[in-house]
Task: inverse folding
């Protein structure tokens, strides 16, 4: 199953990279459905300790990004991520889920040593979060409202994260 998840995520990334960037960002029809509460998923911190994603669900709004060090679209989305973190970081939890496709937790740690990023980084070694959120590719963003319901999903560099967070922090 683990190889299948890696294949599916890699295939999604290949399909996504072939799409025009402006067509990739959307408010619906991608990943977990808007209005749903995500199922429980346990992944790991970068040291291998288990982390239950439900610890963030239903307490305050959360922005999750499915990410990889090798993802050029994730790198292109980063300035928007930093901008919304600067504006909403006191009211929204920012969690980055590093997918286990063509990298290791050690490569993620090395990347973070040379890039000062203000987000919580977790490691989806078994694909549990990828399955729970039906992540179609890296650069997939899910915003949960304060009740834990999916309020936004999108993929690509041209996502309006500001509008998504404005809706859940009113």
Result:
């Amino acid at each position: 199953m683990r190889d299948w998840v890696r294949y599916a995520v890699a295939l999604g990334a290949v399909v996504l990279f072939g799409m025009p960037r402006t067509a990739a960002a959307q408010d619906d029809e991608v990943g977990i459905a808007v209005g749903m509460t995500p199922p429980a998923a346990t992944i790991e911190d970068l040291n291998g300790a288990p982390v239950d994603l439900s610890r963030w669900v239903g307490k305050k709004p959360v922005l999750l990004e499915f990410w990889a060090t090798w993802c050029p679209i994730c790198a292109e989305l980063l300035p928007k991520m930093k901008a919304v973190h600067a504006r909403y970081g006191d009211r929204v939890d920012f969690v980055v889920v590093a997918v286990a496709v063509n990298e290791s937790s050690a490569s993620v740690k090395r990347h973070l040593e040379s890039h000062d990023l203000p987000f919580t980084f977790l490691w989806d070694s078994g694909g549990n979060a990828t399955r729970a959120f039906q992540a179609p590719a890296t650069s997939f963003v899910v915003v949960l409202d304060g009740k834990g319901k999916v309020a936004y999903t999108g993929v690509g560099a041209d996502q309006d994260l500001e509008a998504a967070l404005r809706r859940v922090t009113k």
The longest strand covers residues 93-99. The two ends are 41 Å apart (CA to CA).
